[in-house]
Design a protein that fits this description.
The structure holds 2 protein chains of 2 kinds.
Chain A lengths: L7 H4 L14 H26 L1 H8 L10 H23 L6 H18 L2 H4 L6
Helix pairs in contact in A: 2-3, 2-4, 2-5
Chain B lengths: L4 H29 L8 H38 L22 H7 L6 H14 L2 H16 L7 H31 L4
Helix pairs in contact in B: 1-2, 1-6, 2-5, 3-4, 4-6, 5-6
The chains are: A mainly alpha, B mainly alpha.
Chain lengths: 129, 188
C-alpha cells in the first residue's frame, strides 16, 4: 500500500487491497471551480443581453442562421468558458494540492450567483425597453 | 398514429433524453450515497465504481444531448416570430399553427393569461437547464478522477452529491416547464 497524505486506507481499510496511489486535489478543485465559472458566465451574459442591445445582437451572431437568437451566444460561450477554464486550471494544478473545500465553495458561490442571474425576475430588471 | 418531424424532435429532446437523465439521477444518487467506509467489500467497490463511471458518463452525455437538441433544434420552432408584433394571426386559435408559433401563441393571451408561461417559464428553462450538463460533466470527472478514494472522504462525497443534486434541480426546472409549456402551446 502506498503512503498517502490523505490516509484513505486508514479511514476505509477496504481500500487497502486496491493499492490506490494518492492524487493531488488540484484537478478536483479545477472541476468544481470551472463548473461555477461556466454557470456564472451563462448568468452574466443573460443579464448583459438584457441590459445592452448591442451585446444582445452580438450574442445573436452565434446562431449561424439557425434562429436560436441570443441564447446561442450565451450558451455557447458559457460552455466554452467551462471547458477552457477546466482545461487551464487542470493543467495548472495537476500536480498541486489545492484545498478542495476552498475549490468547492468558490465553485458553489459562482454557481449560485450564475443561477440567480438566470432567474427571469432578476435579469428582467435590467431589460432595456 | 403519426408524429410530425417537429413533434418527433420534441419527443426526443424532452420525453426520451430529458426523462432518461431525470430517471438516471436516482441510480446515481444511490450509488454515490453508498460510497461510505465499511459498507462495501473490496470486490463490491470495484463493481460499484464501474457502474458509477458508466452511469455518470452516460448522464453527462445525455444532459449535453438534451440541451443541444432543445436549444438548436426545437427552440427555433418555438420562438419563430410569425404572427406579427400584435399577434394578429393568433386570434381565434386554440393552438399554435404555421402562422402563430408557440411563443406568439403564449404572448398573445388568446386562450387566457398565458404570457407568463413564456416570460417566466420558458425564459428560466432555456437558460438554467444548461447548468445540468456542466454540473453533470464535473460530477462524472470528479468520480472518474478520485474513484474509490471518495469512500474515505465524506466531505468530498457530500460536495459531489451537492453538485449532482444541482444538475438534477436544473434539469427538473427545464423538464417541468418544458412539459407544461408543451401542454399549453405544443410544437407541431
Amino acid at each position: 500500500m502506498n503512503d498517502t497524505t490523505h490516509n484513505d486506507a486508514e479511514v476505509a481499510p477496504e481500500l487497502g487491497p486496491l493499492n490506490l496511489e494518492d492524487k493531488p486535489d488540484g484537478p478536483g478543485s479545477a472541476m468544481m471551480i470551472s463548473a461555477g465559472i461556466g454557470i456564472f458566465v451563462l448568468g452574466l451574459l443573460t443579464v448583459l443581453a438584457e441590459a445592452s442591445p448591442s451585446i444582445k445582437t452580438w450574442l445573436q451572431g452565434w446562431q449561424w442562421g439557425v434562429g436560436v437568437g441570443p441564447l446561442a451566444g450565451k450558451t455557447t460561450i458559457a460552455s466554452l468558458s467551462y471547458f477552457v477554464s477546466l482545461g487551464l486550471l487542470w493543467a495548472l494544478w495537476r500536480h498541486k494540492d489545492i484545498n478542495i473545500k476552498t475549490g468547492f465553495y468558490v465553485g458553489l458561490g459562482l454557481g449560485l450567483a450564475g443561477a440567480l442571474l438566470t432567474y427571469p425576475t432578476f435579469y428582467q430588471m435590467f431589460t432595456k425597453s | 398514429m403519426e408524429l410530425t418531424s417537429r413533434e418527433t424532435w420534441a419527443v426526443i429532446h424532452g420525453l426520451i433524453l430529458g426523462t432518461l437523465f431525470l430517471l438516471a439521477f436516482g441510480g446515481a444518487l444511490a450509488g454515490m450515497w453508498s460510497l461510505r467506509p465499511g459498507l462495501l467489500t473490496t470486490k463490491g467497490i470495484q463493481e460499484r465504481m464501474k457502474r458509477l463511471y458508466v452511469g455518470l458518463g452516460a448522464m453527462a452525455a445525455i444532459a449535453w444531448a438534451t440541451v443541444i437538441t432543445g436549444t438548436w433544434i426545437v427552440y427555433p420552432w418555438y420562438r419563430a416570430k410569425l404572427a406579427g408584433a400584435d399577434f394578429a394571426k393568433c386570434k381565434g386559435l386554440e393552438l399554435p399553427n404555421s402562422v402563430c408559433s408557440p411563443r406568439d401563441f403564449l404572448l398573445s393571451n388568446v386562450v387566457g393569461d398565458t404570457e407568463k408561461w413564456h416570460e417566466f417559464g420558458m425564459e428560466w428553462k432555456e437558460h438554467v437547464a444548461w447548468a445540468a450538463p456542466i454540473l453533470a460533466t464535473s460530477v462524472f470527472l470528479l468520480v472518474l478522477y478520485y474513484g474509490p478514494r471518495i469512500i474515505a472522504r465524506p466531505w468530498l462525497r457530500t460536495a459531489i452529491i451537492v453538485m449532482l443534486v444541482g444538475a438534477f434541480g436544473a434539469a427538473v426546472v427545464g423538464g417541468a416547464f418544458g412539459a407544461f409549456i408543451n401542454k399549453v402551446a405544443p410544437i407541431s
